[in-house]
Write a structure and sequence with these properties.
Length: about 350
């Protein structure tokens, strides 16, 4: 009776631990999909059979990337694709990129004004960061004019008291611009904790250069590129990226189990920031999600350990018992059966040789 109760108790414990493991794995899957900014390669790939990788490069503020060096880097990446038997001239879907820089500007509409953060963006920035639009449209590299600006909800209410503002005029540092649309900030827990909550607008790279009468250094560069072999894109960027002090991040593989386990092992070193690279809020959010994913993976592995150990113990015990039973019961019976069969066959052979003697 006691032994039966013990077995039932252990079985219930194993089932409970396995349930907890499953919950951790489901939560881990949710964390992996929480940030659209980390899914650009999957979106760009679409139905294509070719794998793609997303890489982010974060530059020190004093070491921004110039457009001239960016164009040279693009050519280097094209040569890497050609060397991998891929032709970027025939298939323009093999590569896409985006870049940005940050600054502070004064916005005004009539008597309403305020200081906001401006993100100057170039390339296909909103393919990497598909912010939720409340009205209007994203900025696009195909825009004819460079005076279109995307406002966040707070700035829209500050200047106009609403969000349906497409085509409305306002000023940035006294220069006229037009509202392209209004967006809502990300609502996931990682982005909310990483975002400082200040008002923020997005404007085209060309428009920002015209406004400031200078070319700011690019502090964040992102690319998606065809990856014929895992690690190909990261290695190519590491080799060819012109700013060697840049911090490179492989977004596509950051939630893989081996990387998360490595993160757990080196979490102290990870928390110590060295150098003067200032990360944008979306990368800080991604790192927070990485930490959460690593903890969930560790929890799942820990919860699965006890059932796995008990299952291994039961298997070993079964094998030992089976070996004992085989030696004590099955083998003697099999030996007796074989011996009896040998005797019967020998008797039959003897009877055939001596037909008259039975």
């Amino acid at each position: 009776m006691i032994r039966t109760l013990r077995k039932h108790w252990l079985l219930g414990l194993c089932l409970l631990l396995l349930l907890g493991c499953g919950v951790c794995l489901l939560a881990l899957n949710g964390v992996k999909k929480a940030l659209p900014s980390q899914q650009a390669a999957r979106r760009w790939q679409g139905e294509n059979d070719t794998a793609f990788a997303q890489i982010s490069c974060f530059m020190p503020t004093a070491d921004g990337l110039s457009m001239e060096r960016l164009y040279a880097f693009r050519n280097d990446m094209a040569q890497k694709l050609i060397g991998a038997s891929l032709d970027p001239q025939k298939d323009t879907g093999l590569y896409t990129d985006a870049w940005c820089s940050f600054g502070k500007v004064k916005v005004s509409a009539g008597r309403r004004s305020g200081e906001v953060q401006a993100v100057a963006v170039g390339g296909r920035f909103f393919d990497f960061h598909p912010l939720q639009l409340l009205s209007g449209n994203y900025l696009s590299p195909d825009d004819v004019m460079d005076d279109r600006v995307l406002l966040d909800r707070e700035t829209a209410w500050l200047l106009f008291g609403g969000t349906e503002l497409t085509g409305m005029s306002f000023s940035i540092n006294g220069t006229p611009f037009v509202v392209a649309g209004v967006y809502e900030r990300e609502s996931d827990r990682f982005s909310k904790s990483a975002d400082d909550g200040g008002m923020c607008i997005y404007m085209s790279w060309e428009g920002y250069c015209r406004l400031t009468e200078t070319e700011p250094g690019i502090v964040c560069y992102e690319l998606v590129m065809a990856e014929p072999v895992k690690g190909f894109v990261y290695s190519a960027v590491e080799e060819k990226f012109p700013i060697k002090t840049a911090e490179l991040v492989d977004n596509s593989h950051r939630y893989e189990a081996d990387r998360l386990l490595k993160l757990l092992k080196n979490r102290t070193e990870r928390s110590m920031r060295k150098g003067n690279v200032t990360l944008p809020y979306w990368e800080n959010a991604a790192r927070a999600s990485e930490d959460s994913a690593a903890q969930l993976l560790a929890g799942a592995m820990l919860l699965a350990t006890v059932p796995a150990v008990l299952a291994l113990y039961a298997l070993i015990r079964f094998l030992v018992r089976g070996k004992t039973r085989m030696e004590d019961e099955w083998l003697p019976k099999a030996r007796d059966s074989v011996e009896e069969a040998v005797r019967v066959r020998a008797r039959r052979r003897w009877e055939k040789k001596h037909p008259g003697m039975k």
